[in-house]
Amino acid sequence: MKMNKQLLGFLFLSLCVFCSCTEEEDYTQGVWIRKSDLNGVARAQACSFTIGNYGYICCGTTGKTTLQKDVWKYNIEDNYWTQCASLPDGAAARIDAAGFALNGKGYITTGAIRDDPYYLADTWEYDPTADSWMQKDDFAGGKRYGAIAFSIGSYGYVGTGYDDNYLKDIYRFDPTAESGHQWEIVNGYGGEKRIYGNVFVIDDVAYICCGENNGGYPGDFWKFDGTTWTRLRDIQDDGDSDTTYDDDTNDDYSIVRKHAVAFVIDGKGYITTGTSGSLRTDYWVYDPSVDLWYGDSDDDFTAFKGTSREFAVSFSTGTRGFVLTGTNGLYFEDMWELLPYEKQDTN
To answer: Among residues of the chain, what percentage have pLDDT more than 70?
Structure first.
C-alpha cells in the first residue's frame, strides 16, 4: 500500500519531534571540566580572591595540627600555578579567614588558629606587583572566623561569622584611610546571624545568603548596593507566599546550605557544594533581572563533577567560575570550571 506524501511528511515530522524530545532528556545543563590541580598541598577551609585573570588561594588546613600560610596564584588564561610570598612572620597560619580583592590588591582578615586565643582579627594586604604583604588595621568587629567578605566600588566589606556567638554585623574597609580609621560599621542589615555564609557581587550589588545559625540553615536572602539593604524573597519555604518563590523549578527549596562556594558568570550568581545535613553536588543559579533561582534536584542541572565536598573555595572573573580544594574527610587539591551554557551527555 502506498502512503501519500502528506502522510509520509507527517510521520517524518512526528518521528523527528519524538527523537528530539528523547535526545533532550539525555542531557543536563552545564559541563564541569577539570583544570590544573593546585600545586600546593591539598586543603580545606582556605580563603581566596581574584585579581584580574589570576585567582589566589591562601591558608587552610590538611586536617593535621599544622595550618597553612602559603599563597598560590592561578593563571586563569593559561591554566598553571605559581607560588607567591607566604603570609609574613607576623601573621599566623589560619583557617576560615575572609578574603577579598580591592583596587588591584588582595586582603585577608579574621580566621582561626588551633591555640588560644582561637580567633583572629588581623588584616593583611597583598600587593601582586611587589609580591609582598603589609599589615593594615585589625578588623574593627573583633576576633572571629567564618565571616563573609566582598568589595563594592572602592570599599571592602566583612561581617557575620562566629566568636562564641553567631554574628550579623557588617563593617566597611577603606585601605586608603589613615591607620586607626580604616574600618567603620555599616548599619541597616536586618538579616539572620550566620557563620559560613555566601556572598556574590553583580554590578556592584552584593547578594548574601546561606550559612548556619545555631544549627539551622538561614533562608533569608539580601542585597546591598553600598548604601541600602533590601530583603529579597527567601530561598527556603517559610509558608509566606509574599516572600517565597512560586515557580516550579524551586519546589524543594534546596538552595540553603553551609560551607558552600559562590561565584558569578555573566551577571548571574552561582551556589554549589557544601552541606545541609549531607554533602551537596547540585548547583543553583540566581538571575537578579527576574529575582529567581534556577536549578533543582531533578537532575536537570549537571551535578558538580568532582567528589562531593564542603569547605572548598572559588575563583570568579565575572565571566568564568572555578571551584577547588575542600574536604569530605579526605582533602582535595583538584579544581573544576563550570561551563554553564554547555550540555552534559548523560548517556
So the answer is: 86
pLDDT digits (tens, 9 = 90+) for 62-87: 987 789 999 999 999 999 999 999 99
CA-wise closest residue to 336 among 46, 52, 55: 55
Task: State the cell numbers at 257.
Answer: 546550605
**CA pair distance 268, 301, nearest whole angstrom:** 15
Q: How many CB atoms lie within 10 A of CB 261?
A: 28
pTM listed for this prediction: 0.89
pLDDT in tens, 148-159: 999 999 999 999
Cell of 89: 612572620
In CATH, 28-345 is 1.20.1290.10: no
Can you name the residues that pair with 100 across neighbouring β-strands? 107
Q: How far apart are CA 183 and CA 205, in angstroms?
A: 20
Query: What are the helix and strand counts (H, E) for the chain?
Result: 1, 24
Check: CB of residue 70 under 8 Å from CB of residue 86.
yes
Parallel/antiparallel/unpaired status of strands 183-186 and 123-127: unpaired
Cell numbers of 232, please?
529579597
Which strands make up the sheet holding 221-224, listed edge to edge?
Answer: 198-202, 205-209, 221-224, 229-232
Distance CA 288, CA 259 (A): 23
DSSP letter, residue 69 = -
